[in-house]
Specification:
Length: 48
């Protein structure tokens, strides 16, 4: 049985993400979506 996983390193998200993403965003999103399981290290505080 074959299992694929896509993992990323530190994901730093901040406010002000421009509508439609940024140059190269679609390619990164599509690559991550290829894995049956996805893992990302969210490197931020999640607060109101």
């Amino acid at each position: 049985m074959k299992f694929t996983m896509t993992a990323t390193g530190d994901s730093i998200l901040n406010q002000g993400f421009q509508k439609g993403g940024y140059p190269g965003f679609a390619e990164v999103r599509d690559y991550i979506a290829k894995g049956q399981a996805k893992f990302g290290n969210l490197e931020t505080c999640v607060t109101n």
